[in-house]
Amino acid sequence: MLLKRRNPANWIETLRISIWPRRSWVRSSQYILKRMFRLGATPHAIAAGIAVGAFTSFTPLMGFHFCVALALSWLIRANLLAAALGTFVGNPLSFPFIWAASYSTGRLILQIEAPSSEKVADIGAVMSSVATATWNLDGTAAMTSVGKIWMPLLYPMLAGGSVLGLTFAIPCYFLVRKGVTFFRESRRNQLMKGAKESHAPSQPRPLSKTPVISS
Fold first, then answer.
1. 161 near 62, Cβ under 8 Å?
2. pLDDT of 72 above 90
3. First to last CA, the chain
């Protein structure tokens, strides 16, 4: 297959790349910004898509962020590719902070007491069973396990994540819209300047002032 790796990556390398990309997070972020600025859509559609993707990253719907972001973008007529790029707000480096903040905010909103150490151990065991059932493609067992952690874990995370997601997505929309507009205006000015310089009449060469010696 064209552009296929000669030596397929093993699971260790795949895990390492998911945590730390080959080109580092800085270069990967620069690539995402360039793709965002060069999307063929209006600044509003791009900014709305990025905001939707960022909002979705704060929800506990792991494995479905991409699908949820596309569905919400379709509903509000945002750019779908921008929404996909916006989901990169949630990554292996930011997820631990997002989950902790979402859970704490959700408990505060819903007035839920902190679980005991035994309850935390029970939740951890249920989450392990969810992962095992998902890995074995056992949908019934996975849904049953998810139902057990809905109230103590997922419900507070969904409530808190929705609030934090909106708090992050709203300023993100205005910043991205302003950035895309500024980028396009700068690029348009550069193109117009280059066109004027290419069509400008060439200046005649100055006459040589070398004295002529008569014989």
1. no
2. yes
3. 80
d(CA 1, CA 163): 45
| Cβ-contact 49, 81 below 8 angstroms | yes
Instruction: Give the CA count within 13 Å in the CB-facing half-sphere of 25.
Output: 11
What does DSSP assign to residue 149?
Answer: T
Least confident range from 26-40, 59-73, 161-175, 178-192: namely: 26-40
Instruction: Count the alpha carbons within 13 Å of 164 in the hemisphere toward its beta carbon.
Output: 26
Does residue 22 contact residue 55 with C-beta atoms inside 8 Å? no
What values do phi and psi take at 111, rounded to 5?
Answer: 55, 50
> Would you place residue 12 in the very low, low, confident or very high pLDDT band (cuts 50, 70, 90)?
very low
DSSP readout, 77-132?
A: T--HHHHHHHGGGS-TTTHHHHHHHHHHHHHHHHTPPPPPHHHHHHHHHHHHHHHH
Residue 1 has pLDDT above 50, yes or no: no
53 Cβ partners below 8 Å, 6+ apart? 65, 69, 73, 82, 83, 84, 85, 86, 87, 88, 89
- As a whole number of angstroms, the longest Cα–Cα distance in the chain is 113
For residue 155, the number of C-alpha atoms closer than 13 Å in the C-beta half-sphere is: 11
Q: Cα 84 from chain centroid? A: 7
The pTM of the full predicted model, rounded to 2 decimals, is 0.69
Nearby residues of 74 by Cβ (< 8 Å), 6 or more positions away: 80
